Structure formats: structure tokens, C-alpha cells
Amino acid sequence: MGADAASHFQACRDHAATEDALRACGVPFTSLRNGFYATSTVQFLNPVLATGGEIALPADGPVSWTAHADLADAAATILAEEGRFDGPTPPLTATQAFTLDDVAKLATQATGRTITRTVAPDDQFRGQLIGRGVPAEAADQVLGIFAASRAGEFAAVDPTLTTLLGRRPTTLDTVLREQLPRI
């Protein structure tokens, strides 16, 4: 969704540089500004899925978690309608943004296990990642997700995906029910 040279998240800075390079070429282009992938929430929940428990993650902000399948359908529609977008698309997002506190509640409902969320200081979380073998640069990139969400970079909710699909996008609740094991 994000393409901003000043983003807290490296991938968004990379997207901005790519869009700048495409503009400089002088040829028509379309850049898909996809919402943050809903299945990413499963990665955050993995440590507690089997038994329930507490996920300790850095402070965050609302994120419009968006289903891959919806984004694939939208991309197909955009490809089939050449010229529909000139340059970047509006944000292709679900209809609601959720915090990780919300994700924990939805995961509890989806799995039947109690999952709670606490806030871990950034430096503690980074240290845990590095302690599990994650390279420091990758740990910093993961922290960038949390910093960007705290800054509201992933909170946008836009009707463009709904319009492209001709229906309401898949909800985060549905993605979690499909992806998470139930007891």
C-alpha cells in the first residue's frame, strides 16, 4: 500500500524508488498499491497457535490487512482493463483496519484458544529476533513494520478494491478462520 521515500518501513521506501524509476522512463505504467497481506498476521501468531497464550510484539497501529486472493483478482481486473490506472493505484485495501490487539481477539475466536497480546519494547523484540538467528538487518526491517503502523502508514481504507472486485473484500476474520487451526 505504501510507497513513500520517508516511510518507516524499508519496503515502502523501495516501492517509492521503483515508482520514481518508472516515472523517469516516460512510459505508461501501473503500480499496484496492495494493502498489507492478511496472512502476515499468522506469522505474528505462530508462536502461540498450538496452545494459546500471549504474543509479545512492539506497539503498533491500525493496519488494513488484505487477502491475497482479493488482490490477485484485482490485479487480473486491472490487467484486463489496460489504461484503467495511469501510475499508482489508490490503496487496494480491505474495508477495515485492525490493531494487533484486534488480531488477538479475532484469532481467539477463530481458534477457540485464548490468545492475548502484550506490548514488547522495540529493542527487546529486536534482541529476541536476533537471538533466534534473524540477521540484524532483517530484524530492523521487521521493526520497521511496527514503526510504520504506529505512524499510520498502513491504516488507509479505500473503496477501490471493493469496486474492482464487485463485492466486499474478504475480511480478516475470514482469513484467520481459513488459516488458523481450530481446537
Automatic annotation (TrEMBL):
Superkingdom of source: Bacteria
Residues in coiled coil: none
PANTHER family linked to this entry: NMRA-LIKE DOMAIN-CONTAINING PROTEIN, QUINONE OXIDOREDUCTASE 2
Signal peptide stretch: none
InterPro entries reported for this sequence: NAD(P)-bd_dom_sf, NmrA-type_oxidoreductase
Protein name in the entry: NmrA-like domain-containing protein
